[in-house]
Design brief:
Adenylosuccinate Synthetase, Chain A, domain 1; Adenylosuccinate Synthetase, subunit A, domain 2; Adenylosuccinate Synthetase, Chain A, domain 3; 3 domains; ten-stranded mixed β-sheet; 12 helices; binds guanosine-5'-diphosphate; binds 6-O-phosphoryl inosine monophosphate; binds magnesium ion; Adenylosuccin_syn_GTP-bd; magnesium ion binding
Length: 436
C-alpha cells in the first residue's frame, strides 16, 4: 500500500489514462492533481472506449474514491457532460468527488483562450482552447472562482462581480463581446444544483487514507515537456504536470509519495506548437502516426511524431524523481525494420549534449543525434510477460531504461486493459535518478 504519482514523461498523451485504469484495479483513491478538460486520457475496458477529460481514470473501479484535486481547473459544464457520458455507459459515479478548492473554468475563460490565441498572430501556442491558461492566470491573479464558491451564493456573486470588472475589459480589448454577470450567476446556480453533493474538503479524506496506508494514485495530466516551469516555455500548459506538484495539487504532504511512475511512449509525439527536435516529416513519421492512431483525444488534431527522445527522458526522470517507467505502445514499432533513438542534441556550435535540456530558443536549433536499433518485426500484441517479448524488443526497452537511468515497471503492447504487464526482469543498468 503506497502513494504513487503517475506522470507523463514526454509531451503528453503517453498513455497515462490506460496505466491509471490498470493500476486503479487495486487502488483505494485516485486523484487528478492538475490541469482541466484539456486532457484526453483514453481508457478501453469492459465499459467501452472513453476519453476522460476531467474525471480521474480510476472511475471504472466502483470501489475507488475518485477526486478532482485542488490543483485542477474545472469547467463544471464539461464535467457534467462527461458524467452523463459515463453514466450512459453504465459507470458508477457514486465515488466521484471534487475538491472545494479547485478553480472553476468559466465560459469567459474559453472565450479569452480563443481571443488570446488569435491575438498571438503567427506565434500561437496551439492551446486546446479549453480556457486552461486564462483560468490559471486568474487563479494566480487571485481573481478566480472556486468550486466551493458554488456552495456560498452570496460570496460567489461578489466574487463574480469582482472578476468581471477586469474580465470584460480584457474581452473588449481583444475584440470580443462582454459577458453578462447575471447569466453567469444563474449558470453557476444550475451547476450548484447538480454538483453540490460532490464538492468536498479533501483534507480529512486524504489524511485518513494516508494514515491507514491506503493505496493512492496521483494522476498527472500532460507531460514534463509542457510543464509551466520546466517545459518548452511559452509553448506549455499553465500548470505543473511534474511529480513535485502532485502532492500540492492533490493535497498530501510531499513526503507521502513513495513511488513515481513515468509514463513514456516507445517513440515521441506532441500536439501543439513549439520546438520538438525529434519530429519526423517523412514516411516514418507518417507511419508512426497511422500505426499509433496519433490524433488528439481532445481536439482530434494530428499529433507530430518522431523517434524516442533519450535526452528528454533523462531530463524527465531526473525532474520527477522517477522510481520506474511504464513504457506504452511498444506494438506500434512491431513492423519497423530499423528503429532510431535520439541519444543527444547537436547544438549549432557542433557540441553534442546528452544530459541537459536547452531552453526554448536553443531547442529550436538543435539537431538530434541518432542511434539505430534493429526492429523485431513480429507482433508483440499477445505478449503478457517480459519473457514473451522478442529479444530485439527487450534490448530496445533496456536501452530506453538506460537512457532514463530508471528501471521499467510496466510495458503495454496494445490499448486494451489486459494488453499490459508488470515487468519481472532485473534492470542492472538502472541508476538512482538523483545520482544523474
Ligand atoms: P494520455 O493522455 O496520456 O492518457 O494518452 P492518450 O489517451 O491521449 O493517448 C494514448 C493513445 O494510445 C490512446 O488512443 C490509447 O488508447 C492508445 N494506447 C495506449 N497504450 C497503448 C498501447 O500499448 N498500444 C497501442 N497500440 N495503443 C495504446
Ligand atoms: P493529456 O493529458 C497533449 C498542449 C496543447 C498546447 C499546450 C497548452 O491528454 O496528455 P493548454 O490547452 O493546456 O493551454 O495548451 O499543451 N496540451 C496537450 N497536449 N495532451 C494533452 O493532455 C494536452 N493538454 C494540453 O496542445 O501545446
Ligand atoms: Mg491525451
Amino acid at each position: 500500500m503506497s502513494v504513487t504519482a503517475v506522470v507523463g514523461a514526454q509531451w503528453g498523451d503517453e498513455g497515462k489514462g490506460r496505466i491509471i485504469d490498470y493500476l486503479a484495479q487495486q487502488a483505494d483513491v485516485v486523484i487528478r492533481f492538475q490541469g482541466g478538460d484539456n486532457a484526453g486520457h483514453t481508457v478501453i475496458n469492459q465499459y467501452g472506449k472513453h476519453a476522460l477529460h476531467l474525471i480521474p481514470s480510476g472511475i471504472f473501479n466502483p470501489n475507488t474514491q475518485n477526486i478532482i484535486g485542488s490543483g485542477c481547473v474545472v469547467n463544471p459544464g464539461a464535467l457534467l457532460d462527461e458524467m452523463a457520458q459515463l453514466e450512459a455507459a453504465g459507470v458508477d459515479l457514486s465515488n466521484l468527488w471534487i475538491s472545494a478548492r479547485a478553480q472553476m473554468v468559466m465560459p469567459y475563460h474559453r472565450l479569452l483562450d480563443e481571443l488570446e490565441e488569435a491575438a498571438r498572430g503567427e506565434d500561437t501556442i496551439g492551446t486546446t482552447k479549453r480556457g486552461i491558461g486564462p483560468a490559471y492566470a486568474d487563479k494566480a491573479a487571485r481573481a478566480g472562482l472556486r468550486i466551493g464558491d458554488l456552495l456560498q451564493p452570496e460570496w460567489l456573486e461578489s466574487r463574480l462581480d469582482n472578476a468581471l470588472r477586469t474580465v470584460n475589459r480584457k474581452i473588449e480589448i481583444l475584440g470580443g463581446e462582454p459577458v453578462d454577470g447575471q447569466e453567469l450567476y444563474e449558470l453557476c446556480m444550475a451547476y450548484r444544483q447538480k454538483l453540490a453533493t460532490r464538492i468536498v474538503d479533501t483534507v480529512p479524506l486524504l489524511r485518513r487514507a494516508v494514515q491507514e496506508r491506503r493505496s493512492i494514485l496521483l494522476e498527472g495530466q500532460l507531460g514534463v515537456m509542457r510543464d509551466l516551469d520546466w517545459g518548452i516555455y511559452p509553448y506549455v500548459t499553465s500548470s505543473n504536470p511534474t511529480a513535485a506538484y502532485a502532492s500540492s495539487g492533490a493535497g498530501l504532504p510531499a513526503r507521502a509519495i513513495d513511488r513515481v511512475i513515468g509514463v513514456v511512449k516507445a517513440y515521441s509525439t506532441a500536439v501543439g506548437d513549439g520546438p520538438f527536435p525529434v519530429e519526423l516529416h517523412d514516411a516514418d513519421g507518417e507511419r508512426l502516426r497511422e500505426l499509433g492512431g496519433e490524433y488528439g483525444a481532445t481536439t482530434g488534431r494530428p499529433r507530430r511524431c518522431g523517434w524516442f527522445d533519450g535526452v528528454a527522458i533523462g531530463y524527465a526522470a531526473w525532474l520527477n524523481g522517477m522510481t520506474g517507467l511504464a513504457i506504452t505502445k511498444l506494438d506500434v514499432l512491431d513492423t519497423f525494420e530499423t528503429i532510431k533513438i535520439c541519444v543527444g542534441y547537436r547544438l549549432p556550435s557542433g557540441e553534442v549534449i546528452t544530459d541537459s535540456m536547452p531552453d526554448t530558443p536553443v531547442l529550436f536549433q538543435v539537431t538530434p543525434v541518432y542511434e539505430e536499433w534493429p526492429g523485431w518485426q513480429t507482433s508483440t500484441q499477445a505478449c503478457r510477460r517480459w519473457a514473451d517479448l522478442p529479444p530485439a524488443a527487450q534490448a530496445y526497452i533496456r536501452r530506453l531504461s538506460e537512457l532514463a537511468g530508471v528501471k521499467v515497471d510496466y510495458v503495454s503492447v496494445g490499448p486494451e486493459r489486459d494488453q499490459m504487464f508488470e515487468v519481472d526482469a532485473v534492470f542492472t543498468t538502472a541508476a538512482a535518478p538523483a545520482s544523474r
